[in-house]
Design goal:
With about 210 residues, the protein is an alpha+beta fold. It has two domains: about 45 residues, no CATH class; about 150 residues, Histidine kinase-like ATPase, C-terminal domain (Heat Shock Protein 90), CATH 3.30.565. The protein has seven helices and eight strands; from the N terminus they run H-H-E-H-H-E-E-H-E-E-H-H-E-E-E. The chain has a six-stranded mixed beta sheet. The chain has a two-stranded antiparallel ribbon with strand order 1-3. A hairpin with a 3-residue loop joins strand 6 and strand 7. About 5% of the residues have low confidence.
Length: about 210
């Protein structure tokens, strides 16, 4: 995390002497560094969890929080986001772990759609005790070989990427009795499906219209 701290300090110093036009760009740098720092902290916690005990977490609220966190990038990329599902749905996970999963999936989808597209999230109840989140994009997609490799640790299609995103998603989902699958076609998009255990004793929630 030290390189991020150095970038932030340098940006803060530059902000004090920069022109008003440049200050907005510098402020963007600081905001993105803070976001990356949070991701690093979350990644460290995810790799060394304090407990494997699942908690009841509202999946729908977590999706909306992630949507809001990426709202500027979604608008900047010209992406239309839509949601279909209940108003709330409690699943067995941990708040920090679920945030890490959704951050990774939203980030991947938006990087695949730099010039616009559609990002759709659909949540449904499967056979009473299971919940499913399907996140689909209309981005550049993957080759069959890439699709076979996406859950391997340290595999990445991104220049300079660490390649821990989807491998970590798989690890977290399985930690709490869930699963993840992915299908993709080049130049058509990618579809990621997450299956959770519904938290015991929780209400499935009311239906939420698409947006």
């Amino acid at each position: 995390r030290n390189p991020l701290a150095n970038i932030r300090s340098s940006a803060e110093l530059a902000e004090g002497i920069a022109s008003p036009l440049a200050q907005k760009n510098i402020n963007d740098i600081i905001c993105q560094v803070d976001r990356m720092s949070r991701w690093v902290r979350e990644l460290l916690v995810s790799l060394r969890p304090a407990s494997d005990t699942a908690e009841a977490v509202d999946l729908v609220a977590a999706i909306e929080d992630t949507h809001q966190a990426f709202a500027q990038q979604i608008e900047r990329n010209g992406v239309h986001f839509s949601f279909e599902g209940p108003h709330m749905l409690w699943v067995a996970s941990q708040p920090l772990q679920l945030t890490q999963i959704l951050n990774s999936l939203f980030s991947n989808a938006l990087e695949a759609m730099p010039k616009g597209g559609v990002l759709h999230a659909q949540v449904s109840v499967q056979e009473g005790q299971r919940a499913q989140l399907v996140l689909s994009d209309t981005g550049k997609g993957m080759s069959q070989q890439q699709e076979r490799m996406v859950f391997k640790p340290f595999f990445t299609t991104k220049q300079g990427g660490l390649g821990v995103g989807l491998a970590l998603v798989k690890r977290i989902m399985e930690r709490f009795g869930g699963s993840v699958s992915l299908s993709s076609r080049e130049e058509e998009g990618t579809r990621v499906s997450l299956t959770f255990n519904i938290a015991a004793g929780e209400d499935h929630g009311a239906q939420h219209p698409g947006s």
